[in-house]
Amino acid sequence: MKELMLGNKAVARGLYEAACAVISSYPGTPSTEITEEAALYDEIYCEWAPNEKVALEVAHGASLGGLRSACAMKHVGLNVAADPLFTISYQGLNAGLVICVADDPGMHSSQNEQDSRHYARAAKVPMLEPADSEEARLFTIKAYELSEKFNTPVFVKMCTRVAHSQSVVEPGQRVCPPRAPYVKDQGKVMMTVNSRNAHVRVEERTRALTAYAEDCELNRVEMGDTALGIITSSTSYQYAKEVFGDKASILKLGMTWPLPEKLLRDFAGKVDRVVVLEELDPIIEDHCRKLGIAVSGKELFPICGEFSQNLVRACMGQEEPKTLSIADAIPPRPPVMCAGCPHRGIFYTLKKQKCMVYGDIGCYTLGAVAPLNAMDLNVCMGASCSGLHGFNLAMGAEGERHSVGVIGDSTFIHSGITGITDIAYNMTNSTIIILDNSITGMTGHQQNPTTGKNLRGEPAGKVDLEALCRAVGFRRVRVVDPYNLARVDAVLKEELAAAEPSVIISRRPCVMIKGTVHKAPLKVNTEKCAGCKSCMRIGCPAIAVRDKKAVIDTTLCVGCGVCTQMCRFDALESGEV
Amino acid sequence: MDTKNIMIVGVGGQGTLLASKVLGHVLLGQGYDVKVSEVHGMSQRGGSVVTYVRYGEKVYSPVIDKGEADVIVSFELLEAARWLEYVKPEGQIITNTQEVEPMPVIIGAAEYPRDLAEKMRAAGAKVDAEDFLALAGEAGSAKAVNIVLMGRLSRYFPEIGIDAWEEALEACVPKKFLELNKKAFALGR
Question: Which residue, A243, A544, B129, B178, could crosslink B117 as a Cys pair with Cβ 3.0–4.6 Å?
């Protein structure tokens, strides 16, 4: 029966139908729902791994053990998984292994806009690119067939507009292949002669896959008007069809690595002019040029940002639709930390103490926006710890007394442990604040090794953060409640002044976790309120000042009480009865 | 038929996702090809959010671009104005008159523009503006504003029978809230 299905859910459906039995992933927008949706099938073991490198190694191990496996990650997660990726490509598999990677053109929820297709080419791993949900299902199943036929992991590459769009899917049946037995093979030990032999096999495999790409069902030609030929893939194909319909001929590439040669030349020979329409980097375009095919590409379309039908119209010299407008400036509505967010008290204090704040990846990146403006920079998962150590090597005692790294619980487990180990081992007096809100927040509330629950919410192992920090060499490990501003202020002062490295664990669950019991919304005593706006300095979306009196939005306020600590007139009162 | 375009816009956390789920269900039931597209993640934390719903014989692009929307359904007045350029000059805007101040307004760095519904009308837009939040309250919960808005949207699709909408509500809304949401739908319609 036809069903409207999210692209990521369709990948999960494909994993189920292809009898994938083990999935290990780390959450990351826009890839997270692949693993969450797959976990709804009892037949698939699903787990959140500490990071993407671990996830890929787990999935590969399961493949060697004879079960079809997968992992899902966002584009930057593939950087973390790159180390195993390149050698798994050499080593090969037992059962099929699919790596789902989701790019984020336009950076809706990412720190960069890298193009994952470079990894397919660099690691010599084939890549399939679905353009809608039904293709996401079908290509995932196809990926297992190719993985086992060519003895290689296979990428299923998503992008935000395919991952987070729902389109019509017709689910099929689950088909289980016979289980592959594990057989010891000394050739799999990747050293000297084995690695050299493996590289030769990989090059042979790429030649075989290129031959396959010439006439496989993944790549298709849709002939229309022959004045214009468009070579495209993924969501760009949809924009091309939207704008041109059958007024252009289209070569739609469902496999974007390795790329065909004869297919491209033949298509180019049938049309008067060839345009390559691809988001981000000119990978198909460069390949065409290498083959000597005359194409237009990035001289017409931007490298930065995501495409749309109007962008294609504008770049191709077509008229854009008429629009309406008003003269008023529309104030932006940036995302904000939720009312009651436990991170707020920490960032308020860091701003107050004028700290240099090396941030990290998570909801708390919102500590950078007005009015808190309390973050200096961020780079990637875990950089707050190692980057701060390096900063303090350069800055010396002056840096150590005025700088902190802030990192969430899940990000700390992902990549912060090695960074704090460097601090303890090589001894800068750096101060790290672990924002332990008992969940992976930004990606939509996933469990992690610090929460004591597994992906399905069942009881699981639990990392003891205090013991872990002590074990790597920190003697100063403090725990604070971020709702207590005076205490946060005092502890931060002490740890910045301390002549040795410190970890401060700010512990308070995210207010958005299901089942969290909130206090009643606060009340404003309008007789006491002087309209001084001190309560506004914490940037809580539940507080506004109108007609010189504070106003509490009772639909948002969770009664955390941080604002009451800002008020000199005791005008913000508990709403508890 | 040409592909039709409906945008649902609002503030993260206002319940736009359920509205698009119900609408997608209705349109699929009418035998159309349908695409529903939205961005998850960062913007959901109180930011401006948008869902694109497209239907027709064959839908290609998952997104709606400037000047393409037949209808914009807005949960909040400023958001209707923010997305105004997306509506076709002959298109329809349905907007809640609720005003939710964004952070730049709360901290005094920007002003919330006045008389937005009138200004949008003066620009040539057809605007159906009402206090849908009050209707949701009347139905029993402010949270049902999403379904009140779907009720109003249904007015503009006389070819789709009330049964199809009720069936979609039954499929998309938890049972214990079904009666409340049916009431909300009827009040909006």
Answer: B129
Number of residues that make up chain A: 577
CA distances from A474 to A46, A358, A465, B163 (A): 34, 19, 11, 65
Q: Do A326 and B123 touch (CB under 8 A)?
A: yes
Give the domains, in start order, of chain A with CATH numbers: 3-179+190-215 (3.40.50.970), 219-315 (3.40.50.920), 343-507 (3.40.50.970), 523-573 (3.30.70.20)
> What ipTM score was computed for the predicted complex, to two decimals?
0.95
Q: What angle do CA A151, A152, A154 make, to 5 degrees?
A: 135
Q: Is the pTM of this model over 0.90?
A: yes
Cross-chain CB nearest to B11 (options A333, A443, A539): A333
| Separation between Cα atoms, residue A351 and residue A266, nearest integer Å | 62
Chain A residue numbers with beta carbons less than 8 Å from the beta carbon of B111 are 331
CB contact residues (below 8 A), chain B span 67-96, against chain A: 67-68, 78-79, 81-82, 84-89
Cis peptide before A177 (omega within 30 of 0): no
Q: Which two tokens stand for residue A81?
A: 């998984």
Q: How many CB pairs under 8 A join A and B?
A: 184
Q: What are phi and psi of A403, to 5 degrees?
A: -135, 150
Q: Does B116 touch chain A (CB under 8 A)?
A: yes
The per-residue pLDDT for range A377-398, each reduced to its tens digit, is 999 999 999 999 999 999 999 9
**Chain B neighbours among A 108-147 (CB < 8 Å)?**
108-109, 132
Question: Under an 8 A CB cutoff, do B87 and A324 touch?
Answer: yes
Please choose, from the candidates A36, A35, A30, the residue with its C-alpha nearest in 3D space to the C-alpha of residue A103: A30
Does the domain spanning B4-188 belong to CATH 3.30.950.10?
no
pLDDT digits (tens, 9 = 90+) for A258-317: 999 999 999 999 999 999 999 999 999 999 999 999 999 999 999 999 999 999 999 999
Count CA within 13 A, CB hemisphere, residue A557: 23
Rounded Cα distance, A412 and A420, in Å? 9
What count of other Cβ atoms lies within 10 Å of the Cβ of residue A137? 27
